[in-house]
Amino acid sequence: MSFRTSFKPYYPDAETDKSRVFLPHWEQQGCTYFVTWRMADSIPMEKLRALQTERATWIAEHPKPWDDSTWKEFGQRFEGRVQDWLDQSEGSRFLVDTEARRIVSDALHFFDGQRYLLGDYVVMPNHVHVLFSPLPGHELKKLLHSWKSFTSKEILKDWPQAPNPFWLMESFDHIVRSESQLRHFQDYIRQNPVKAHLTPESCTHWEPE
Fold first, then answer.
1. Which residues sit opposite 175 in a β-bridge?
2. How many angstroms separate the CA atoms of 171 and 38, rounded?
3. pLDDT confidence of 115, banded at 50, 70, 90?
4. N or C, fewer C-beta in 10 Å, the chain?
5. Measured between alpha carbons, how far is 125 from 38 in angstroms, rounded to an integer?
6. Which CATH number, 3.40.1190.20, 3.40.50.720, 3.30.70.1290, 3.30.2000.10, labels domain 1-11+30-42+93-209?
C-alpha cells in the first residue's frame, strides 16, 4: 500500500475527534493530513499578538455556525497570512543548514509504512509542510510529537547554539477533504520554495513515487 493509492478524504458524517489549544485540531481515522509546523522564532511575537487580537475581533463579529464562504475567508485572512509570514523566512532560519534538514527528512522517512504513509513534504528554512496518512493504531498528535521531539533533541545536541525550544509547541493540521484539495496541497508544497524565492540548496523537497 502506498500513499498515492490509499488516500481517504474527510467524511462529515464519520466520527471526528475535535480539540483545540490555540488552533483547532480534528482527527478522523484513516484520513490524510496536511500539516505545518515551524521553528519557535519563525514569526515575531508582536505580529502574532496583533493577529490574535484581530482574529478575536473578527470571530466576535462572525458568530458560528459558518458557511463555506465564511470558513474560506477565515482561512485566507488568518491561516493564510501566517503561511505568508513563514515564507518570508524570518527568525534564525536554522534549517538552511543541510545537515539539520537531513535530520528532519530522515525522521519523516523512518517509520514510513509502519506508523504512517508519507506523502509530499518540504523542509523550509524555518518550517515544514508534510502530507501523510496515519496507519491504524497511530494518532496524529502522537506522530507529530514524536517527529518534533526527536528532531529538536538531535539538532540541539549537534548545534547547541540553535534556538531552544527549537519548534513551536503547536502545529497547524488540516484533514484533506477531496482529491482536488490533495492536489492543491501537493502543488502548494512543490511551489513553496519558488514562492519564497529559495534556491534548491536551502530547502528539501520530496514526493512519493
1. 33
2. 7
3. very high
4. C
5. 9
6. 3.30.70.1290
Tens digit of each residue's pLDDT (9 = 90 or more) over 9-56: 665 655 555 554 445 556 667 789 999 999 988 766 677 677 778 888
How high is the pLDDT of residue 173?
A: 85
CB atoms within 10 A of CB 196: 19
Residues in the chain: 209
Give which of 35, 26, 43, 25 is closest to 144, Cα–Cα: 35
Residue tagged 522564532 (cell numbers): 41
Domain spans in the chain, listed from the N-terminal domain onward: 1-11+30-42+93-209, 44-90
Other Cβ atoms within 10 Å of 43 Cβ, number: 21
By CB neighbour count within 10 A (0-12 exposed, 13-18 middle, 19+ buried), where does 73 fall? middle
